[in-house]
Design brief:
By secondary structure, the protein is α+β, with helices and mostly antiparallel strands. The chain is built from four helices and six strands; from the N terminus they run H-H-E-E-E-H-E-E-E-H. The longest helix has 16 residues. The model has no long low-confidence stretch (mean pLDDT 94).
Length: 157
């Protein structure tokens, strides 16, 4: 696929359907994980204009910053700490409507107000997380959860 992204402006559901098709085509013939994660982060940022979108990858006993789009971010996160570390520990997607109310939230940016984190699972083990932040409270919902979980299921890990 040519590395051109076509932005769709319909409903959130339609935007996800459209961008997931493009992402699938973009990564289908690429074996390099970093390249795929970088393009996925860029495509999501371009389509949805989220404050921050990217990946943290498990390395030894912590999450380490991977490919992302947005302002600089926390580099390392311990298991169980913050939203990303909690998603890793529980192996569950977490939607946080107001990060200020999340126990142990790590404030990488004071502009981040809400967050969704989706674990990347390979062979039953969390190997990383997809982290998305918005500068608006109550931004993410079950539609985001459904489609972002669908997205991580197609990433060759």
């Amino acid at each position: 696929m040519a590395e051109d992204l076509h932005i769709h402006t319909g409903s959130k559901e339609e935007q996800y359907e459209f961008i997931l098709q493009q992402i699938a085509a973009l990564i289908e013939d690429e074996e390099d994980q970093v390249a795929n994660l970088a393009n996925i982060a860029a495509a999501l940022k371009q389509q949805f204009n989220w404050w921050w979108v990217g990946f943290y990858l498990v390395k030894k006993d912590e999450l380490v910053l991977g490919p992302f789009q947005g302002p600089v971010a926390c580099t390392r996160i311990k298991k169980g700490r913050g939203v990303c570390g909690s998603s890793w520990a529980s192996a569950n997607t977490l939607i946080v409507p107001d990060v200020e109310k999340f126990p142990g939230h790590i404030a990488c940016s004071s502009y981040s107000k809400s967050e969704i984190v989706v674990p990347l699972i390979k062979d039953g083990i969390v190997i990383g997380v997809l982290d998305v932040d918005s500068e608006h409270n109550n931004y993410f919902d079950e539609t985001d959860k459904y489609h972002l979980q669908k997205l991580v299921s197609i990433i060759p890990l």
